[in-house]
Amino acid sequence: MFNDLTDNKSRGVLVAIGGAEDKTSEAVILRRVLGLAPDPSACEVGVIATASGYPDETFATYDETFGRLGAKAVHNLDVRTRADAGRPELIEAIERCNVIFLTGGDQLRLTHILGGSPLLAAIRQRREQGAVIAGTSAGAAAMSATMIYNGHAADALRKGAVKMSSGLAFVHGVIIDSHFLERGRFTRLMEVGTTNPEYLGIGIGEDAGVIIHEGPILEAIGNGHVIIVDSSELRVSNVFELSDGEPVAVEHVIMHALTSGFGYDVRKRRFLSPSDLENN
């Protein structure tokens, strides 16, 4: 499947994970991340725990998990300040990594520290050379060019309720939200789609993930759900008439639920069965 997209000569894929992925038993998602690397048998992983409030403990968890899954080496890319994001030794370490993994935490901390930095430029270059870029929770939300950084899940379908900022721009035209079902975040992506129907919402549940192949073609993985929120055929909304905080009316938002093996063609706005995905 997708041999033309994941071979050594192709740009590396993205893997966005909804958070709370299994790390102690089968670790299906993280195992798949390693398997997508250009040379899985000699995979070196760089872990960036910048988003985390407890970076040492967070790194230790992924160090143990990736080591158990067969990584040749796991590097602690310890970036806590913008000055760190320019350190030559960290950039050299990035150049050895087949997988670069962004942990959970606070996506604004992550984008503030990495945005415009030599380290981010090195990560993008490694992706062009075939390295896999993966992120969980905040690390997933920050992957898109525009990201959500705040917004109450319980009542986000109000004008201005969802706060957005620039992300790391590994993928364009989508908005990624994590912990999606567990924290009831449907209205967050509905509010985003109402204000800009061009964006495709990707809501990823816990212990679920999505591989973003070229195309872009989405492939769901893991034990949870990936929810697609498509507002491109939105018909009626009152959002432009409202003041901030007022409730939004919206007609014809389309949603799909993907589980492992199902997919979605972002450009064609088309749900893909496992057989469709295999033939793409």
What would you note in describing this structure?
It is a single chain. With 280 residues, this protein is an alpha/beta fold. It has a single domain, classed as Class I glutamine amidotransferase (GATase) domain (Rossmann fold, 3-Layer(aba) Sandwich), CATH 3.40.50. The chain has 9 helices and 15 strands. Strands 3-2-4-5-1-10-11-14-15 form a 9-stranded mixed beta sheet. Strands 8-9-12-13 form a 4-stranded mixed beta sheet, covered by helices on one side. Strand 2, helix 3 (55-68) and strand 3 (73-76) form a beta-alpha-beta unit. The longest helix is centred in the N-terminal third of the chain and has 14 residues, at 55-68. The radius of gyration is 18 Å and the shape is globular. The N and C termini lie close together (8 Å).
